[in-house]
Amino acid sequence: MARTDRLLALVQLLRRHRRAVTADLIAEELDVSVRTIYRDISTLIASRVPIRGEAGVGYILEPGFDLPPMMFTTDEVEAVLVGMRWLRVRGDTALAKAADDVLAKVGAVLPSSLQPLLFDGGLFAPTFRGRGEAPRIDEASLREAIRRERKISINYADQDGTRTSRTVWPFGLSFFNNAHVIMAWCELREDFRHFRTDRIHDLSLLEDRYPVRRTKLLRRWEEESRQKNPDLIRQD
Fold first, then answer.
1. Is 37 exposed, middle or buried (0-12, 13-18, 19+ CB in 10 A)?
2. pTM to 2 decimal places
3. More confident: 37 or 134
4. Domains of the chain from N-terminus onward
């Protein structure tokens, strides 16, 4: 890898992480020596890239620094293409439209040599859905609730058709082939639960915010999920 490409890759690596990354881990990913990483970090700092940290502790990229938008590699362009094509099929109407807009915006800033990868690329996402029914609700409202950390009220039918009314704290939405699944804290069960959007008959966005931050709920859910057998994670 040329030194210029390596410096860009180093900045991109730091940008992916919210916490300090050690020189050992950086060196392993970029397949160079730790000494080389120390030299590269010094070069970037001298070029006024806002990197904070020290040897033996780790390095972090300060907020506010960004690379020019056209600094895409071929792999990154193809990643955007596959992701947006996937969303066209599995996202709600608003997300599908946003996926087309993202492709147009990225294409507008790409060098002409990379544009064929985006507009005529040979990578595709499946265009078929699984056997699950289409969501009965407007998932755009659900995504708004997640962003704003708002409680929602749902009328939910389990796999046997039994309906219950729930107030839940949604903090995540997963897109599977046969269903879209909400990760949430359920006030009725006083525990984490997973709800398929095709089984929700009514959804109302409530005024109340839930009492903890979404990121904290997500960390708690991840920790509990790791401690359980994934096959035993409850889905109502």
1. buried
2. 0.63
3. 37
4. 3-61 (1.10.10.10), 74-119 (no CATH), 139-232 (2.30.30.520)
